[in-house]
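Weekly puzzle thread! Below is a chain. First person to post its structure in token form gets bragging rights.
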Amino acid sequence: MESRARLFGHPIHQMLIPFPVGLLITAAIFDIIYLFTGNTNWVASSFYIIIAGLVGALIAAVFGLIDFLAIPPGTRAKRIGLMHGLGNVGAVVLFTISWVVRLTSNPFDPGTLPIVLSIIGAGVILFTGWLGGELVDRLGVGVTEGANLNAPSSLSHTTPQPGAAD
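Winning reply:
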């Protein structure tokens, strides 16, 4: 099934997701660097990067939801899409809480909680990114009308039949 939200023939959601993914994971990496160096410039940068990542995530989510709603019910793609979307909402919540705690305390010395939340959020994003890859690369969601929306997991080591549509 092809993406319902396209720009110049390409799925908009897939064009937008590298920005929030890169920004939010970078924020978590900067938090980790801060833990090792104690240099507050890293967490101050993370504070601002999180905002940019959250804005990007909300924009990408609109187009992801449009594509998700077009996936036929009862398919493996619908189940994975639901996990992908809910996981991303969870990551956004974790990063939002992390940012709010930083804002209400001190962005230059946020304490442990916001850093832990950003690291967990980055882990969730890595997992939901894998799920997104499963949707696009394995199941063909957003890519082709001849998608196999019930192809087996890439972890099963079973090769889906090319062009096998449901």
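Puzzle host: Confirmed. Bonus trivia for everyone else. The beta strands are 6-7, 10-11.
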